[in-house]
Design goal:
Strand order of the largest sheet: 1-3-2
Largest sheet: 3 strands, antiparallel
Shape: globular
Oligomer: single chain
Strand content: 25-35%
Structural class: alpha+beta
Number of strands: 3
Order of helices and strands: HEHEE
Radius of gyration: 14 Å
């Protein structure tokens, strides 16, 4: 049986950029996805083009891009799960 479970998390940073706040959160989310039987990976969306390089560093690739308004862009990204100690 295929596992199509989806879990949601919203992170809106009020913290200054470049201070390493994203790394621990992403590592935790990736560990959960990598250990979950049937997980295909983690998807996210970002409104900031500056974040693309950060997410690529963590193994994400861009799936799509849309400009919804003059001041609003959206990028969809995905990181495949990595098989680790799955039962």
């Amino acid at each position: 049986m295929e596992n199509n479970a989806a879990r949601g998390l919203t992170a809106d940073s009020a913290a200054p950029l470049g201070r390493g706040h994203a790394s621990p959160l992403l590592h935790h989310i990736h560990a959960l996805a990598d250990l979950e039987p049937g997980s295909s990976g983690v998807s996210l969306s970002t409104e900031s083009g500056r974040n693309v390089k950060l997410y690529e560093h963590f193994g994400y690739h861009q799936l799509g891009y849309a400009r919804m308004a003059e001041e609003l862009e959206m990028r969809a990204m995905f990181r495949p799960a990595r098989l680790r100690n799955r039962a």
